[in-house]
Amino acid sequence: MSDNPQSPESISEELRKLGDNLKNTLNALWQSEERQNITQNVEQGISDLGKAIDNLANEVTKGETSQRLKQDFNDLRTRVNNGELETQVRSEMVSSLHRVNEELNKFSTRWSPKADSGAAQGAQSDQPESERSQGDPDKGV
């Protein structure tokens, strides 16, 4: 450090000069030919990218797969509009519900006591033949 302290005015003056120099430097950079070339290249690249995306979109919409999808959607729309799809869905739902009900009925029948032979006989019929012929060990039979 020097023996002469700087006055507040000189610090303010240097800060003002620094601000002016930064402003002039940024202006020079902004208006430079190199920055303008970079900006032009970026703008051209973005434009080329947009054109390439447009071309790709046109190719996709004109392609075989796209045409097939359009036809499939049109067929679906027709089936919905004329009720064919609704009829098919209803029929499949009824069939599925019928199968579920049959399976539930089988399950329920298997686990419920037999109404015509009584609970005791139903329990005995679940035992193997060898156990039924031996009788009830608790009763001494």
Structural account:
There is one protein chain. With 141 residues, the chain is mainly alpha-helical. The chain has two domains: 10-62; 64-109. Helices cover 80% and strands 0% of the residues. The protein has six helices and no strands. It has helices spanning 8-30, 33-62, 64-81, 84-111, 118-125, 129-134. The mean pLDDT is 79.
Task: Describe the secondary structure blueprint for this structure.
Blueprint: H1 8-30, H2 33-62, H3 64-81, H4 84-111, H5 118-125, H6 129-134
Structural key phrases:
141 residues, mainly alpha, 2 domains, 80% helix
Summarize the structure.
The chain is mainly alpha-helical and 141 residues long. It contains 6 helices and no strands.
In terms of per-residue confidence, which ranges show pLDDT below 50 for 5 or more consecutive residues?
none
- What Rg do the Cα atoms give? 45 Å
Distance between the termini: 120 Å
Strand count, sense and closure of the main sheet? none
What is the SS-derived class?
A: mainly alpha
Query: Got a strand count?
Result: 0
Contiguous helical run count? 6
* Shape label: elongated
